[in-house]
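User: For my dataset I need records formatted as: sequence, then structure tokens, nothing else. Please produce one.
Assistant:
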Amino acid sequence: MKNKKWIDFLLYSNIFISICAATITTETYLLIHSEINWLYIAFVFFSTLFLYDFPSLYFAEEAFSANQSERHKWILENRNTLIGFSAISFLVISITVFFFPLKFILLMIPNAVLAFAYFFPQTRLRSITGLKAAVVAVVWTMVTYVYPLLLCPLTCGESWRGVSERFLFMLPLCIIFNVRDIEADRIAGVRTIPVVYGTRATIIICLISLLLFSILVFFHRRGSAETMALIASAIVSAILILKSSHNKHDYFYSFWIDGMIILQAGLVVMTSILL
């Protein structure tokens, strides 16, 4: 029970997903062979924490009152913890953002607006079939790959090819979460891919995306040390996706599926050290 308490805290407070964001952003700097910008890594961690925690508080009573999942129960029972994390995150974001160039800050605004718009039902972004996962994948790609490139003083043109790789890796991880949420989305009228086309078709789409990711990696990074690391992460992700269903415990998605982000980053770090 004690271990479960800590796992719930790590996952449902959104610390784990924030670590995922920070680690895959660190991976980006290794892939583009640039010095790691630790200030931006910290910004990514706390921005992710704020972005995931704040909407949970905002919609806690309205959206979660009828939902009896472990995650939603934890959120309702630990509102003060989330309020504290949100406040600390907002403070860190407010401080670190002033260390970035004004032009860079302005370029981040559209992505921030898109990220927040995703959580607010008034924007109706989720009502468009397939857009729910695509929006999340775009936001993650921008934050963890595009913005690190923009911060680099010298950026190799070929590094931009990695943007499509990152999107194709993140997209299936975002889509498969919709399988977990299929019943809630169906009730809410959210037209996700699993709701419209079913779980089987969703899994096939995810596997195609990972296949395209692997092909791009092979031809883009052929001969590089990180090629096998990236492809290996896609293979493990595909195996987990094949096991996905709406009956799986939330840990399967929040830890194992999201954990593929850390797996990829870890494999890339290992290859950069050993090879």
